[in-house]
């Protein structure tokens, strides 16, 4: 971006609330069912049906509001957003316009070591639409209404972000938070977490916003950054070329790395929102807020600070280990069972995450359970095995079901702690290698390594290298 | 407040209502009359009165998050004009 321009970005994120049934009906929300087998009369908008609000959707929305320190509306109302599309059978979407359930809150992000507070304008409950399949139906469109009526929480940020990088940081932070709160599974492939970005540019230092374009449905962190950067460039090119940005909706095409116009954005009042007469005002009592607040889990920022203080780890390790609740829990279980915080930090951020990454697995699918890993770390800590041998044992833990102790026993991997046995080998190696011994004694420190190598080989790597070193030097200089 | 013929046509289009050309002027007058009444009501002093979102003085009851509906696709699709592979078929909606 040329330096006299500044981008202004706001995000609207749709999170699918992980309820069993739909927001206004008792149909299932499970992903991947046969088309239209989870679409009941309410979801189909058949005459005479009435929506009944799902308590769990309300609780999850309140949970989110409390976690971002937002105002929870004591009175909240539902509205009809009117538009015609075949995957919206009623001709309106039940959403919230005035009096959304979650008001003003905020989320802190970290970019390049700086913390920045991003305002959250509101978060409101609404129902999802169905799915249109445009391919291969002899010129017709196929409609699957399984998704119709799935509860969504639309989270609208303030236009507080100034770069694609900040937008991605905000999106990741929100993604982490909703999974911590267990209100959304965060599965982006299945559309449980979708993002629209409002992007505009203005000359640096100007207070007024430029005309914005909305980029729809960007469903991966990578694409958000690319799509926003592309859009910023496009708008700057237009303005620098003497043109004007038009307010419109654009779609990001990941294959071509460009955005293209979708349709002129309808004026907000064209949706003709009005309160839905089928639904009464929702009242959130103080007692419900207190009850939910009491069950809030430790949030990512607080957990990160605690990990730094309690386990003496650096900020980067803490950020990695608290990036998901499952990983943080796994770590703490390993520490509890092994009593080795530092070893656990190094092993988890290094070998374990490395192996998971390579295998394309999440921590929940880790073949080495927390207690089996703790069993390994205990043997490293008490010097039963060397760090190098531990890596071999880890491979065996990964590929089998035995415990570290069983593997060490079976494979004879125990370090030799019998000093007499090591001493005998040290003596024989010294006797058999007069050359290197001579070199070392004449000042060539490096020659010592050759001798240590010989000893380690004869002990099959089971001697403690530090011990061997010490004993060897003592003998040579003695 | 007064609605023009174009306003009426736009509203009719948004609601997908067909209105005969000769009726447009008539609708514009009628609807303007309603809006005038709204304007008049808007002049009333409502300070201290809580806005009403629903005429019933009650609050929303919530249902427990339980799956209570079973698959009745065949039943529903029996009255659909056209279906295939479990999908409802409709005229193509994108160009």
TrEMBL record, chain A:
<comment type="similarity">
    <text>Belongs to the GatB/GatE family. GatB subfamily.</text>
</comment>
<dbReference type="InterPro" id="IPR042114">
    <property type="entry name" value="GatB_C_1"/>
</dbReference>
<protein>
    <recommendedName>
        <fullName>Aspartyl/glutamyl-tRNA(Asn/Gln) amidotransferase subunit B</fullName>
        <ecNumber>6.3.5.-</ecNumber>
    </recommendedName>
</protein>
<dbReference type="InterPro" id="IPR023168">
    <property type="entry name" value="GatB_Yqey_C_2"/>
</dbReference>
<dbReference type="InterPro" id="IPR017958">
    <property type="entry name" value="Gln-tRNA_amidoTrfase_suB_CS"/>
</dbReference>
<feature type="domain" description="Asn/Gln amidotransferase">
    <location>
        <begin position="329"/>
        <end position="476"/>
    </location>
</feature>
<keyword id="KW-0067">ATP-binding</keyword>
<dbReference type="InterPro" id="IPR003789">
    <property type="entry name" value="Asn/Gln_tRNA_amidoTrase-B-like"/>
</dbReference>
<dbReference type="InterPro" id="IPR017959">
    <property type="entry name" value="Asn/Gln-tRNA_amidoTrfase_suB/E"/>
</dbReference>
<dbReference type="InterPro" id="IPR004413">
    <property type="entry name" value="GatB"/>
</dbReference>
<keyword id="KW-0547">Nucleotide-binding</keyword>
<dbReference type="InterPro" id="IPR018027">
    <property type="entry name" value="Asn/Gln_amidotransferase"/>
</dbReference>
<dbReference type="InterPro" id="IPR014746">
    <property type="entry name" value="Gln_synth/guanido_kin_cat_dom"/>
</dbReference>
<dbReference type="InterPro" id="IPR006075">
    <property type="entry name" value="Asn/Gln-tRNA_Trfase_suB/E_cat"/>
</dbReference>
<keyword id="KW-0648">Protein biosynthesis</keyword>
<comment type="subunit">
    <text>Heterotrimer of A, B and C subunits.</text>
</comment>
<keyword id="KW-0436">Ligase</keyword>
<comment type="function">
    <text>Allows the formation of correctly charged Asn-tRNA(Asn) or Gln-tRNA(Gln) through the transamidation of misacylated Asp-tRNA(Asn) or Glu-tRNA(Gln) in organisms which lack either or both of asparaginyl-tRNA or glutaminyl-tRNA synthetases. The reaction takes place in the presence of glutamine and ATP through an activated phospho-Asp-tRNA(Asn) or phospho-Glu-tRNA(Gln).</text>
</comment>
<dbReference type="Pfam" id="PF02934">
    <property type="entry name" value="GatB_N"/>
</dbReference>
<dbReference type="Pfam" id="PF02637">
    <property type="entry name" value="GatB_Yqey"/>
</dbReference>
Automatic annotation (TrEMBL), chain B:
<protein>
    <recommendedName>
        <fullName>Aspartyl/glutamyl-tRNA(Asn/Gln) amidotransferase subunit C</fullName>
        <ecNumber>6.3.5.-</ecNumber>
    </recommendedName>
</protein>
<keyword id="KW-0547">Nucleotide-binding</keyword>
<comment type="similarity">
    <text>Belongs to the GatC family.</text>
</comment>
<dbReference type="InterPro" id="IPR036113">
    <property type="entry name" value="Asp/Glu-ADT_sf_sub_c"/>
</dbReference>
<keyword id="KW-0067">ATP-binding</keyword>
<comment type="function">
    <text>Allows the formation of correctly charged Asn-tRNA(Asn) or Gln-tRNA(Gln) through the transamidation of misacylated Asp-tRNA(Asn) or Glu-tRNA(Gln) in organisms which lack either or both of asparaginyl-tRNA or glutaminyl-tRNA synthetases. The reaction takes place in the presence of glutamine and ATP through an activated phospho-Asp-tRNA(Asn) or phospho-Glu-tRNA(Gln).</text>
</comment>
<dbReference type="Pfam" id="PF02686">
    <property type="entry name" value="GatC"/>
</dbReference>
<keyword id="KW-0648">Protein biosynthesis</keyword>
<keyword id="KW-0436">Ligase</keyword>
<dbReference type="InterPro" id="IPR003837">
    <property type="entry name" value="GatC"/>
</dbReference>
<comment type="subunit">
    <text>Heterotrimer of A, B and C subunits.</text>
</comment>
């Amino acid at each position: 971006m040329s330096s006299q321009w500044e981008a202004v970005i706001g995000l609207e994120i749709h999170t699918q609330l992980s309820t069993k049934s739909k927001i206004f009906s008792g149909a299932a929300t499970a992903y991947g069912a046969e088309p239209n087998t989870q679409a009941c009369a309410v979801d189909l908008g058949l005459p005479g049906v009435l929506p009944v609000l799902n308590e769990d959707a309300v609780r999850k929305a309140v949970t989110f509001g409390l976690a971002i320190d937002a105002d929870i509306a004591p009175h909240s109302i539902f509205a009809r957003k009117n538009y015609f599309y075949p995957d919206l059978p009623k001709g309106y979407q039940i959403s919230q316009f005035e009096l959304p359930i979650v008001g003003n809150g905020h989320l802190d992000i970290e970019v390049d070591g700086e913390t920045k507070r991003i305002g959250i304008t509101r978060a409101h409950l609404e129902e999802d639409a169905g799915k249109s399949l445009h391919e291969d139906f002899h010129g017709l469109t196929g409609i699957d209404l399984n998704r119709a009526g799935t509860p969504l929480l639309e989270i609208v940020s303030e236009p507080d972000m100034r770069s694609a990088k900040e937008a991605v940081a905000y999106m990741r932070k929100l993604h982490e938070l909703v999974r911590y709160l267990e209100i959304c599974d965060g599965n982006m492939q299945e559309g449980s977490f979708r993002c629209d970005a409002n992007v505009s540019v203005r000359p640096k230092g100007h207070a007024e916003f430029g005309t914005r374009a909305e980029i729809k449905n960007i469903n991966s962190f990578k694409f958000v950054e690319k799509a926003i950067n592309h859009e910023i460039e496009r708008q700057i090119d237009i303005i620098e070329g003497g043109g004007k940005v038009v307010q419109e909706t654009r779609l990001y095409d990941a294959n071509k790395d460009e955005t293209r116009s979708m349709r002129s954005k309808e004026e907000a009042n064209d949706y003709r929102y009005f309160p839905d007469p089928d639904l009464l005002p929702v009242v959130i009592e103080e007692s419900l807020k207190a009850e939910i607040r009491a069950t809030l889990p430790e949030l990512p920022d607080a957990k990160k600070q605690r990990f730094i203080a309690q386990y003496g780890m650096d900020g980067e390790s803490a950020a990695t280990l608290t990036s998901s609740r499952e990983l943080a829990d796994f770590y703490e279980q390993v520490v509890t069972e092994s009593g080795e915080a530092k070893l656990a930090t190094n092993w988890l951020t290094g070998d374990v995450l490395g192996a998971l990454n390579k295998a394309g697995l999440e921590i929940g699918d880790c073949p080495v359970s927390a207690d089996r890993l703790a069993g390994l770390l205990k043997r490293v800590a008490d010097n039963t095995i060397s760090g190098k041998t531990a890596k071999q044992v880890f491979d065996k833990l990964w590929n089998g079901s035995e415990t570290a102790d069983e593997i060490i026993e079976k494979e004879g991997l125990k370090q030799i702690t019998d000093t007499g046995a090591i001493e005998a080998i040290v003596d024989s190696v010294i006797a058999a290698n007069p050359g290197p011994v001579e070199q070392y004694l004449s000042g060539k420190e490096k020659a010592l390594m050759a001798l240590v190598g010989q000893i380690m080989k004869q002990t099959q790597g089971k001697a403690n290298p530090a011990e061997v070193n010490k004993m060897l030097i003592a003998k040579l200089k003695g | 407040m007064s609605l023009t013929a174009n306003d009426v046509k736009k509203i009719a289009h948004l609601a997908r209502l067909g209105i005969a050309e000769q009726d447009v002027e008539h609708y514009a007058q009628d609807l303007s009359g309603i809006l005038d009444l709204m304007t008049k009501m808007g002049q009333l002093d409502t300070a201290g009165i809580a806005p009403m979102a629903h005429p019933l003085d009650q609050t929303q009851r919530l249902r427990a998050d339980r799956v209570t509906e079973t698959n009745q696709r065949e039943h529903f699709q029996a009255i659909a004009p056209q279906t295939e592979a479990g999908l409802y078929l409709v005229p193509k909606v994108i160009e």
